[in-house]
Amino acid sequence: MKYYIKKVAEPPVYSELTDWKPKKWAVFGASGFVGKNIVRELTQAGIEVVAISAPRMSLLNEQPTTQSVIEAAQTSSVVHDLAMKVKGVDVIVNAAGLAKPDSGDFNALLGANALLPTVLAMASAEAGVGRLIQLSSAAVQGEKETLDDTAEVAPFSPYSFSKALGELSLIELIHSNLACRVLIVRATSVQGIGRQTTESLKKFSKSCLASVAFPADQPTVVSSVTSLSCFVRMVGTFSGAMSPIQLQPWEGLTTLQVLELAGGKRPLILPNRVCKSLVWGGKWIGAMFPRIAGPVRRAEVTWFGQHQESFGVRVPFSSNPTLIRQILQES
């Protein structure tokens, strides 16, 4: 299955706001793993936070486009209802997406990860909200050797397609001079104590299958929910110029270090060519069975890692490498 999305122009850089001092935040998806940690981060920083339940949405469209998503949002009665709920809020964080990389429920994924963000952007503009922070995923860039903060996407699964479509729909709204600043935060492979993905990583790291591709020194996108939450706070409060797309910063680990920390032992280092052949075979199968694409991609990233770079105006942020180390060792 092909996941084609029409390209959009790069969004313009937001100018400096010298008087930007947000006082009240609203978090959608506050009961979820990431949302709960963001609320904790904001509360500890002395910021007033309200948790708002996100409406369940679906999008019945076999060939969705940014235009069809925007049109669906424009005709949704939910926009005005949400606008009434967020009046008086300075910053909205949308952490209510459907975080199920292996899901095959295309309509539900489109509703949660593409339509809902677009509806929230329109509601934010109607309510006079200053900023909307959309929690997206680096998965939107798929197999790119190097992740970046451009509008270029390369989805490879129903989940990554829904996230990419949500991003590009928001960028189209940015180009239309939406009366609210939309910031897209691309989270990487976020880990945390008690999270299922982290438990799965630890289980794999302790098994006899634990392995990385030679030379095992590639940077990894494995990151901590603590750093992500802090980064979201910085994106919401920063008053300087910034690009609408912000990639979660690298936290300093390599492919080898991740498995050593999570498993407490040294993993196998496999020949690079063998790993590439296995990934190629997995992708061939995944082309026929979309639900396989997610696990194959995770194996590829575990073996080969992924580089990161920035071309835009980044929000100043320094990651604390001890945070992800503690999570991998303690989870």
Describe this structure in words.
Helix 2 packs across helix 4 (106-127), helix 4 runs parallel beside helix 5 (158-175) and helix 6 (196-206) packs across helix 8 (255-263). The chain is built from 11 helices and 12 strands. The chain has a domain at 24-193 and 220-250 and 308-316: Rossmann fold, CATH 3.40.50. A 6-stranded parallel β-sheet has the order 2-1-3-4-6-10, with helices on both faces. A two-stranded parallel sheet has the order 5-12. A two-stranded parallel sheet has the order 7-9. Strand 3 (91-94), helix 4 and strand 4 (131-137) form a beta-alpha-beta unit. The model has no long low-confidence stretch (mean pLDDT 96). The protein has 331 residues and is α/β, with parallel strands linked by helices. The two termini are 36 Å apart. The chain has helices spanning 33-44, 66-74, 78-85, 106-127, 158-175, 196-206, 225-237, 255-263, 272-288, 293-304, 321-330, and strands at residues 24-28, 48-52, 91-94, 131-137, 146-147, 181-187, 189-191, 211-213, 222-224, 245-247, 268-270, 307-308.
How much of the sequence lies in strands comes to 5-15%
Give the strand line-up of the largest sheet. 2-1-3-4-6-10
CATH class of the domain at 24-193 and 220-250 and 308-316: Alpha Beta
CATH topology of the domain at 24-193 and 220-250 and 308-316: Rossmann fold
**SSE order:** EHEHHEHEEHEEHEEHEHEHHEH
Query: Which sheet architecture does the biggest sheet show?
Result: 6 strands, parallel
Quote the distance from N terminus to C terminus. Answer: 36 Å
Q: Which stretches are poorly predicted, pLDDT < 50 over at least 5 residues?
A: none
| CATH structural architecture of the domain at 24-193 and 220-250 and 308-316 | 3-Layer(aba) Sandwich
- Classified in CATH, the superfamily of the domain at 24-193 and 220-250 and 308-316 is NAD(P)-binding Rossmann-like Domain
Count of DSSP H/I helices: 11
Helix content: 40-55%
Radius of gyration equals 19 Å
Please tally the β strands and state the result: 12
Class by helix and strand content? alpha/beta
